[in-house]
Amino acid sequence: MMKKSSGTTKYFSLGLMALAIQGCGGDTNTSTNLDNVDISGPSTGWEMVWNDEFDGTSIDAAKWSHEVNCAGGGNQESQCYTDAPENSWVADGMLNIAALKADEGAEKPFTSARLTTKGKADFLYGRIEMRAKLPSGQGSWPAFWMLPTDNVYGIWPRSGEIDIVEAVNLKAKDAEGNPEAHVHGTLHYGREWPKNEQSGKAYLLPDNINPADDFHTYAIEWQQGEIRWYVDDYLYATQRRSEVRYNAKEQPVGLAYKGWFTEYYDQSTGELNLTWGDQPFDEKFHLMLNFAVGGNWPINVNETGIDETAFNSENKYIVDYVRVYECTANPDTGKGCETVRPGYDKLDDALVEGKAPAPTPPSDGVAKDLLIFDSTPNPSWPAWDCCGGSTPDLVADADKGDVYRFVVGESPTVNGFISRSAFITDPEGVPSPFDASPIESNGVLSFAMKLVSAPVAPDVAWLVKLESNEGATAVELPITDSTEGLAPSVGQWQTYSFPLSTLASKGLDLSAIDVVMLFPAWGSGNGAEYLMDEVKISRPNASLPSLTVFTDNENPDWPMWDCCGGSTPSVVSDDAEHGIVSEFTVGSSPTVMGYINRTEFGGSGAMFDATSILEKGLIQFELKVVNAPNTADAPWLFKVESNNGETAVEVALTASVEGNVPSAQWQTFSFSLADLSAAGLDVSAIDVLMIFPAWGQGEGAVYRVDNVKISQPGADAPSADRLTLFADQIADTWSIWDCCAGSTPTVVSDDSDHGAVAEYVIGEQPTVVGFFADDGVYYDASAAVPSGVVRFEMKVVSAPSDPSSKWLFKIESGDASTAVELNLSDSLEGVEPVVGQWQTYTFPLQTLADAGLDASAIDVLMVFPSWGTGNGAVFRLDNAIIGTP
User: How many CA atoms lie less than 13 Å away from 272 in the CB half-sphere?
Assistant: First the structure.
């Protein structure tokens, strides 16, 4: 077996590595030295493939077309675009675009020009640049940009938009009274409006230079998966494709990098999908040059509105040239000609984070219920006022006890419950989008509501709205569409129910529900006050399936059965505890025995579907051997079949959870449905259970079986999807561990609240310590990522002698294939250890997953003073868990 490795071996070998490198005498650095990059101009390797120097006497119709319309660009702009020579012309080797006051009575108050290369030239990857002097004035909006030629991924912005340079209101005063001087580089992408996204960066030229005073070169370098923005060859912004992170099961669980994304229709399925690849910036785009007047952006910033005096033939957008280059190193990807500098790929410098949502966590397929609120607040689902400025509060109600009170004032708002990080303030809370997809067929959103005072406006519609996956999908319904069909009535508690199947049919993605809202229609709720309680997503009166095959008497649907020996199993009386039991006798003919559901053997044929209890369900029975087989060492076996023998699994009885060897005493044998499924059993149609001595070795055996059932133990009690690493003792198959110093951590007694705890002592030898899984043991916390945590309590008995020592937390997965290391102060509690005090530290699994941890195979958890600084430290850990709090 391969020995489990830990990333902590890097600490142990650090000194040896340093000595080895020093002794080699060579340079071991193979990365690019960006300090030596020449950024005075573009990188070599660019070959010009298209250009317009504007050296002629007119605009080149072979390269440019004029758009002629008054559509306002979709931004409520105030110009009509024309092909009139007074709006655009070539003179002295320059393209000039002027925005002018229109004639009295014109459709729009201004005229201007917009030029495009669509149908004449388009490009995929390369360097695109323009040298230009930009116009100024409040309301001015010049742009050099690109649009997709074929809209492969759908209408704007699904197929993308690349803004190479834009500026608004240059020289108009900003909020501090300074002249506006920013230029902007932006990408547009994502879902269809109004859920579209954009990301970009503003840039100020050095020395307070204003782009309207002189010519400057504006460019992008566009390659597969990355676009970079330049002004006068200075790289000021970088944007990249998103990178999806997968767990060990190849399931998407997060984003290693949040960049761009898009939404598109899958032509083969007709479904609307998100994609996080090179799309939409992997298709051909054409060039656009225009000078807009007004629009939603310019008129709402700086001095606001439009200064009519700024629009005249002297205040021009003047373009010296437009040039397009191809990277000769690799024209198909655009890679190999990058003009970069130190910091171009750093978030605190040039790298711009995108707006991509994380992939919806994979459903674990397990049917669960969610209690959002019932008298006790759920820290992961706080009550919330979106936009009205109120704070929902708990109040006492005579009928319901503590309930949440919502109010609506003059400001339009919506209210409800939300599970997104930006709105969770309780340190115990973590974002917990709810996967309701396994209960779509029988699940219901329900809540109780009492209207204290109605809105001032009469006949206001009350609405219920749910959102999923950060608003990727949403459904809004009148409250009267509930199963009950009632409108709210002042002074009365009323219950409302909405089947999940209805919500799904209207477009809600049930796999990541994160907002539940109830509110009077937007802008009409002033004066409303209402109470909410019993807010949940659940299966009313539903219970997990279970099957009793035999207890006290034979189940006629599952008769006892001798496959091949000719005997007739019987029911007999045993001790007082067991009463009537099954008895099986094996003769000279080889056989297997047990219980069968198939109709040809007298069963009902109603196969048992254990899918909904797959994760935690068991097949269990009790067994007592009356006479052992004549073959003394005959193995005892358990076999289960499904769907008329299409799948089957056979295991030794000693492979049960208990690991028992059959004996003359009654013993319980339990087999995990998850393990049987992993071995190949289809648990959706179980129809045979067999217990027997191995084929041909059972002669002489007489044995009794009782309490045969398939169920999820404790299904009626709340369950916890978590691993308790240490609470009085270390978890099975884990150890308390010192990586590198040779000490043996111990279990010692602490105060009455904590009892037995793990104690670690750090000496002179540098080390890290914590909890370590046995070889081949991994904890799969992937299903708990949206709402789960890593949590432990810690007490420092004595601090490290080095006062600069930092306390760290580290977690590893898959034999150190992924790991995350953080300061203890990065926990939700945000506190440093204090000598002599027990303190709790909580790290959301989602945070760890977003930082790169594969939560499906956790095998090391560490808490330690920073490497080499811990001498003298003594500390204790207790109540360490991974999973649902």
Answer: 12
pLDDT tens track for 379-392: 999 999 999 999 99
Q: Residue 132 contacts by C-beta under 8 Å, 6 or more apart in sequence?
A: 142, 144, 215, 216, 218, 317, 318, 319, 320
Q: Is 596 helix (H, G, I), strand (E, B) or coil?
A: strand
Bin 875: left if φ > 0, else alpha if -120 < ψ < 50, else beta: beta
Q: Are 689 and 674 in contact (CB under 8 A)?
A: no
Residues 69-94 pLDDT 10s: 999 778 899 999 999 999 999 999 99
pLDDT the model gives residue 540: 76
> Concatenated DSSP letters for 418-447?
E--GGG--STT-----B--GGGTTT-EEEE
**φ, ψ for residue 599, nearest 5 deg:** -65, -35
Catalytic one of 77, 129, 166, 338: 166
Give residue-wise pLDDT tens across range 787-825: 789 999 999 999 999 999 999 999 999 888 889 999 999
Starting at the edge strand found earlier in the chain, the sheet holding 383-385 runs 383-385, 415-418, 513-520, 462-468, 473-478
First to last CA, the chain: 34
Q: CA-to-CA distance for 46 and 53, rounded, in angstroms?
A: 18
CA pair distance 655, 638, nearest whole angstrom: 9
Query: By CB neighbour count within 10 A (0-12 exposed, 13-18 middle, 19+ buried), where does 29 fall?
Result: exposed
Question: Residues 6 or more apart from 648 whose CB is under 8 A from it?
Answer: 639, 640, 641, 642, 680, 681, 688
| pLDDT score of 617 more than 90 | no
CA distance linking residue 79 with residue 101, whole number of Å: 9
Give the Cα separation of 50 and 336 in Å (integer): 20
Q: Are strands 529-538 and 444-453 parallel, antiparallel or unpaired?
A: antiparallel
**Active-site choice (77, 129, 161, 221):** 161
Q: Is 486 helix (H, G, I), strand (E, B) or coil?
A: coil
Is 812 catalytic? The answer is no
Residue corresponding to tokens 């803004």: 163
Catalytic residue status for 166: yes
**Angle subtended at Cα 723 by Cα 672 and Cα 746, rounded to the nearest 5 degrees:** 120
pLDDT at 24: 28
Query: How do residues 320-365 score in pLDDT, each as one tens digit?
Result: 999 999 999 999 999 999 999 999 999 999 999 999 988 876 776 7
Angle at 457 between CA 452 and CA 461, to 5 degrees: 75
